Structures are given as C-alpha cells and as structure tokens.
Automatic annotation (TrEMBL):
Protein name, UniProt field: Class I SAM-dependent methyltransferase
InterPro entries recorded: FAM173A/B (IPR026170), SAM-dependent_MTases_sf (IPR029063)
UniProt entry keywords in alphabetical sequence: Membrane, Methyltransferase, S-adenosyl-L-methionine, Transferase, Transmembrane, Transmembrane helix
GO molecular-function terms, A-Z: methyltransferase activity
Natural source organism: Comamonas avium
Transmembrane regions: 32-54, 66-92
Gene3D superfamilies the record matches: Vaccinia Virus protein VP39
Amino acid sequence: MHFLNKLIWPIPALLAWGLAWASFAVGQVWLPWWGALCVACTCALATSLWGGTWWRRVMIALGFPLSWMVLAAGSFPAWLWLLPLALLLLVYPINAWRDAPVFPTPKGALDGLAAHIALAEGAHVLDAGCGAGDGLKALRSAWPQARIYGVEWSWPLRWLSALRCPWAVVRRGDLWQSSWGDFDLVYLFQRPESMSRAAVKSLGEMRHGSWLVSLNFPIPDVAPVYVAELEDGREVYAYQAPLAEVDYDSVLSDEIAGMLPVRPQGIVVQGQSLYPRKGRPGGNMHRH
Ligand SMILES: C[S@@+](CC[C@H](N)C(=O)[O-])C[C@H]1O[C@@H](n2cnc3c(N)ncnc32)[C@H](O)[C@@H]1O
C-alpha cells in the first residue's frame, strides 16, 4: 500500500473516498444503514494512511463522513455532525498529537542493523508508539528471532497494528508511562523534542547493553554507537545503554522549545514521576 501515498494528489483521496462509498453501498446489502456507515467510516480511517502528509490524511478521513452528511442532511439528528470530529479524535487523540502524528517507518528501513546490533533468540523488542504497525514490521524484518511488542496511544491504530501484525504483542498505552526496563531494544520514531525525554527514560530504566534506536531524530548531545543512512536520506541512530548523563535543564528547555507542555503526570521512570507539571497533581516542579 506504500505506493498509494506516492501517487499524485488527489488520486489517493479520490480512491479512498470511492472505496468508502463502495463499502457503504455494499455494506447496506447485509447491514442496517448505521452498520454500513460504521464499516465505511472504518474504511475512511484506514485509508487515511494513504495521505503523505498530516493534512492529506485529515482530508481523506473526513471526505466520506462529510459528503455522506451533506447528502443525508435533514434526515439525521444534529449530533451526527460530530461524527467527523469523533473520527479525527479517534485517529489522533490529543495526547499523541503532542508527540508525533502517524508517519510510518518505511519498509525495510531497519534491515542491515542486525549486523551491528546482535539480539539473542527471543530478545524483547518494543516499538514505542507503534502507529499502524509499520515499525513493528520493520523490526521483525530486521530481527526475525526477536519477540516484538508495541505500545500505542490511539485505540484504532493499536487495533490496526494488532491486526496487521498478529505475531506482535500490541497494547494501548502511553509510551512515557510504560517501563522500558524489560526490553533489549526500544525503537522510536517520534519527534525531535521527544528525544531528550527518551534519554531520561533510557538512562533510568534500560538495562546495560540494551539498545535505543531512533529513526530520523538523534538524542541531543549523545553520540550514537552506529548511524545508518536510508535511501531517502534519513538516518537511523542506535544508542547503547547506559547513555551518558542527561542534563535536567536541557530536557526542560527542549520540552519548552518544542512546545510540548510537560504532561501533568510527568515522565515515569522506575515508577517515579519526573518533571510533573507545575501546579498539577503530582506536586510542584522540583529537581531530582
Ligand atoms: C511517527 S508515528 C510512528 C509509528 C510507528 N512507530 C512506525 O514507525 O511506523 C508515531 C506514533 O506514536 C504514537 N504516539 C505518540 N505519542 C504517544 C504516546 N505518548 N504513547 C503512545 N503512543 C504515542 C502516535 O499515535 C503515532 O502512532
């Protein structure tokens, strides 16, 4: 399906809208109208991944429900106009917007890393923020002997990645609240501003010798053990625990520079909440 987001815009959108309308029409043969509507909206959600950018995905996801509502206007209750908003919130819950919207890891992006990072049979590998499952697939392709885990904030994306990657253990949750201590390798494809947080988590939780791998975004001021260049020019950075010391002030200034409000509960490291937001439950900000 990767070729679809390379097609000239708006061809992916036209295909996606056509598919959603077709599934609505076919769905009505077996299902009540609302059942067919749910099927078509699910189709709109899934095909939104064909958009190469965030705005294109929004347009693809909203095309069917909006056009259906315009056509059906007058014959349904007013609250149904909230449907497109609900769809949007389902794909990109507000919490996940702060870190990274869905951009999939390209196929085979991690191939070749195994020559530098040897993982034992049954090693535990986590895709932290696994989106629609492309990172899970890339991890499996690179380390087929490993046990692959994923954590994802968005319910439908968690569901989609579990469907696409039945061999992985995928759960819904916050990657900053989950422990990274049980993993031999944690893979991230988030945002530049997320990387100093990742350093804090890694330093506090990851076992000596385990790996933190990041696509596209390096950890500031930490030298990677290995850097691989992808065909599209992006880089994959591999760090081995323990990382060098992480500076409290630089993490905080990265959070502010990235306009990522420190989340109310902070970043949980070894069960302890670091950087809790000022004036919120969890107490005032203090140094650890
Ligand atoms: C750029 S996408 C990468 C998806 C996947 N790892 C891949 O490489 O194909 C980032 C994903 O992280 C998820 N995410 C962002 N913040 C999160 C959080 N705090 N907890 C769990 N998932 C999160 C987003 O919903 C999105 O699906």
